[in-house]
Amino acid sequence: MFIPIAMVVGYSVMDNVIVNKHPQFIGFDSYIKVLTNSVLPTAVMNTAVFTVVSVIAHLVLGLLFAMMLNTKLLSNVTTGLFRVIYILPWLFTVAIIAILWKLLLNPNGVINYALISLGLTDKGIEWLSSPATALIAVTFINIWAGYPFYMVSLLAGLQGIPKDLYEAAKVDGASGFQQFWSITLPQLKPIIISMSMLDVIWTSQQFALIWMTTGGGPINVTEMLSTFTYKLAFSNYQFSQASASAVMILVLSTILAFFYARYQKARD
Q: ABC transmembrane type-1 domain location, by residue (predicted)?
């Protein structure tokens, strides 16, 4: 693990390694060029929006579905059926998810056909090719693919909450919302914080889904830090700048990982 990291750090302070036969030490010039790149602010903003919206939606959907599956109002057969349906997105690889949604969101795809049939639009929408909808579309796809992780974890947490707490709350006259606010959420808080911190790290580094659906386009509307770094290396052949960008992302990820590890240690 440390050898490739050290090599990339070394690349970042050299004059365009790999394509340059005799690279020279240039210090932090590559970092300066990356920081002054006009595309970087867009990539940072897109990554922030993509990550924040995805994490919040993952949490809300995961909690809603977990509570639904944990309720006694549904029969065992119905609950089992919904468990299978809700966990399906988790079974697909990123490649399958990307292909599936590219077909569904195609101008001639099922979703546009349904919208046209309902009279909500008069022509097919270019969901992944339009600057107005591309970021929304890839964010939605990521939400769809990621909520089962929360659902399964929160369902396990819900099933571990002692029933005595709810019975005592009912005796005290607490409403359903009061029980949720004063018992369910505090009991789930450690799980929610742990999953959210992990999800921020994973989502901010999402590459395959973005690359296979929009490639960071159109006109940088879905450009993320991951695709920005990839293009520096394999589209522009600026391997030193790509290495510098990778090192900066590594530092940010390390900071997030530090807080996660610190929280886990405090929790233990």
A: 44-260
Angle at alpha carbon of residue 204, lines to 250 and 201, rounded to 5°: 70
- Omega before residue 162 within 30° of 0, cis: no
Task: Tell me the C-alpha distance between 81 and 151, whole Å.
Answer: 15
Question: Where in the chain are the domains?
Answer: 1-36, 48-240
Q: According to the CATH classification, is domain 48-240 in 3.40.228.10?
A: no
CA-to-CA distance for 160 and 12, rounded, in angstroms? 48
- pTM value? 0.91
pLDDT in tens, 180-205: 999 999 999 989 998 998 999 999 99
Helix axes 185-204, 239-267, angle to 10 degrees: 170
Retrieve residue 225's tokens.
């830090």
Instruction: Look at residues 244, 238, 184 and name the one whose alpha carbon lies nearest to residue 10.
Output: 244
CA distance 37 to 60: 36
Express each pLDDT in 112-121 by its tens digit. 999 999 998 8
Residues 6+ apart with CB under 8 A from 194: 260, 263, 264, 267
191: left (phi over 0), alpha (psi -120 to 50) or beta: alpha
